[in-house]
Amino acid sequence: MKDDFCPIYASINLLQEKWTLHIVRSLLEGPRGFNELGRDIGGCNPTTLTQRLERLEASGIVEKTVQSTMPPRTRYTLTEAGLALQGVVDAVDRWGRQFLNAPPTEQGVVQPEVKTPVRQVQVRGT
User: Fold this and answer.
1) pTM for this entry
2) How many domains does the chain contain in total?
3) SS3 for 64-100, per residue?
4) Count H helices, E strands: the chain?
5) CATH number at residue 37
6) Which residue, 37, 26, 36, is CA-closest to 121?
7) Domain contains 86
8) Residue 23 is assigned to a structural domain of this protein
9) How far is it, in rounded angstroms, from Cα 126 to Cα 97?
């Protein structure tokens, strides 16, 4: 039984890392450059952001495109598998609103971990 594939375990193993769903959530709004992602999610250091993006790319969730401009620009977009996480993000959002009762602020919802407001966004398909 131990060697049987469990899609829930495998999914949680990929998505549980800190900042991973924040990255996906930001990219659901559209392609982003590295610095844009860093600003969007706030509080994630560049080394960690690089590691998360590399893992998401290796897992087929994110696609990295390097534009041959001077200086070169890197853009990140969600793949089909990444876009399919829309429902997961929506479900987590609904669950959090229902059971966590996060107090809204003028800027958004305060994310306790980083102590900064997180913009509430409408992502594709909602």
Assistant:
1) 0.75
2) 1
3) EEEECCCCCEEEEEECHHHHCCHHHHHHHHHHHHHHC
4) 6, 5
5) 1.10.10.10
6) 26
7) yes
8) yes
9) 16
Identity (one letter) of the amino acid at 89? V
- Residue 92 belongs to what domain range? 7-118
96, amino acid identity: G
Report pLDDT digits (tens) over 35-86: 999 999 999 999 999 999 999 999 999 999 998 888 889 999 999 999 999 9
90/29 Cα distance (integer angstroms): 13
Round to whole Å and give the CA distance between 89 and 91. Answer: 5
7: Cα within 13 Å, side-chain hemisphere? 0
In one-letter notation, the amino acid at residue 87 is G
Distance CA 16, CA 100 (A): 19
